[in-house]
């Protein structure tokens, strides 16, 4: 007690300060009080200052606690499926266009965005009077709904259509296949995992890397296309992955951008990610081999590497006008070369034999 609080009260003399220290030690009732009204005013001023400081401390503490209680960034939904936001963004983008510009709008899976935006930029460089708007992720489900509702011209999907979506009779246009890999933070020393090791990691049976650092598993939400791609090819993984969801064993990340950021910033972390994203986004991450096999185009085509998903457009009818021109650009030699350069495998309707699939009721593009 008797510490200098650092608070200076106007009108309080050095003698008064000594009185406050003495009062704190003996108790205010035991200290003789002199100075009358002036001294009382000094007491009021000092206590007002102390109360002010305490109030400020309480407010700061409340703000800090609020930040600690906030939803972690890996649980943020990032507005997926927010139709009001999507429609507003479309209206704002349209307002910025010149009256003589042709425009098409695309929205859907975050897995499609890095490559599709690269293709859109190349297309607009080739045809400056034409505009391709690619919105932020609303997920594959959101892409199907957006195109069905007429909000966009082409939806973006990275998984097979659900049974309920098959009945919509949408045209499915596959344009790229991409390997899905276990991707880790750069501090992870191991170059790869076996299938068994991958299952053990997600089952929680293996908890440490070979350098004894803890393994931090990052899961995407249920229905994520990368998880589904691994589930299809490795049923043992599907079982432990489902158990991890039910037991809330791992952190769940709800969008691609959050996954990129979490993997890059979290030592010892591992998650499932498509390999093309690591190249188009220039992510500082380690792409792990599977049973000693790298996720290359050659290994995807030969079937040696088993985890992959297809990226597709969906539309209400066969694309026409600018949408058809955009699809044809992707199928051109320049479009196919760009897809390869970014770590994806070019696809046409004829080359689609596995991966995302179209769904039983979907129509393929010619």
What can you see in these coordinates?
The protein has 366 residues and is an alpha/beta fold. The protein has a domain at 14-70. It has 14 helices and 13 strands. The strands form 2 sheets. Strands 1, 2, 3, 4, 6, 7, 8, 9, 11, 12 and 13 form an 11-stranded mixed beta sheet that branches. Helix 4 links the parallel strand 1 and strand 2. Helix 7 packs parallel to helix 9 (235-247) and helix 8 (225-233) crosses helix 9. The radius of gyration is 30 Å and the shape is globular. The termini are far apart. The relative contact order is 0.15.
Topology diagram in text:
Blueprint: H1 14-26, H2 36-69, H3 83-96, E1 102-108, H4 113-126, E2 130-134, H5 139-148, E3 154-157, H6 163-166, E4 171-185, E5 192-193, H7 195-203, E6 216-220, H8 225-233, H9 235-247, E7 251-253, H10 256-265, E8 269-274, H11 275-280, E9 285-287, E10 289-290, H12 297-302, E11 308-315, H13 321-331, H14 333-341, E12 345-346, E13 363-364
Parallel strand pairs: 1-2, 1-3, 4-13, 5-10, 6-7, 6-8
Antiparallel strand pairs: 3-11, 4-8, 4-9, 4-11, 4-12
Helix pairs in contact: 7-9, 8-9
């Amino acid at each position: 007690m008797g510490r200098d609080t650092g608070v200076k009260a106007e009108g309080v003399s050095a003698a008064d300060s000594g009185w406050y220290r003495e009062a704190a030690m003996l108790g205010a009732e035991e200290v003789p009080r002199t100075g009358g009204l002036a001294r009382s005013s000094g007491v009021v001023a000092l206590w007002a200052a102390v109360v002010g400081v305490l109030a400020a401390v309480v407010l700061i503490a409340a703000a800090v606690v609020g930040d600690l209680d906030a939803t972690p960034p890996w649980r943020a939904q990032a507005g997926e499926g927010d139709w009001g936001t999507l429609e507003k963004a479309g209206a704002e983008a349209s307002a910025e266009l010149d009256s003589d510009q042709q425009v098409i709008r695309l929205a859907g899976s975050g897995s499609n965005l890095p490559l599709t935006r690269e293709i859109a930029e190349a297309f607009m460089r080739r045809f400056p009077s034409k505009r391709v708007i690619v919105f932020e992720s609303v997920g594959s489900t959101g892409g199907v709904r957006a195109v069905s509702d007429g909000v966009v011209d082409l939806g973006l999907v990275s998984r097979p259509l659900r049974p309920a979506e098959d009945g919509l009779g949408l045209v499915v246009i596959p344009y790229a296949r991409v390997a899905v890999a276990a991707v880790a933070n750069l501090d992870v020393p191991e170059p790869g995992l076996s299938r068994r090791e991958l299952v053990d990691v997600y089952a929680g049976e293996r908890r440490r890397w070979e350098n004894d650092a803890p393994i931090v598993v990052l899961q995407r939400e249920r229905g994520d296309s990368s998880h589904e791609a691994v589930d299809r090819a490795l049923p043992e993984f599907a079982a432990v992955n489902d158990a991890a969801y039910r037991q809330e064993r791992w952190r769940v990340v709800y969008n691609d951008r959050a996954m990129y950021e979490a993997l890059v910033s979290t030592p010892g972390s591992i998650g499932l990610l498509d390999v093309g994203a690591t190249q188009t986004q220039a992510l500082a991450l380690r792409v792990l081999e599977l049973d000693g096999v790298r996720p290359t185009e050659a290994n995807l085509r030969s079937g040696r590497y088993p985890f992959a998903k297809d990226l597709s457009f969906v539309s209400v009818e066969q694309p026409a006008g600018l949408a058809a021109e955009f699809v044809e650009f992707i199928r051109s030699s320049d479009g196919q070369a760009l897809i390869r350069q970014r770590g994806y495998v070019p696809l046409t309707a004829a080359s689609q034999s596995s991966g995302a699939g179209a769904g039983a009721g979907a129509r393929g593009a010619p």
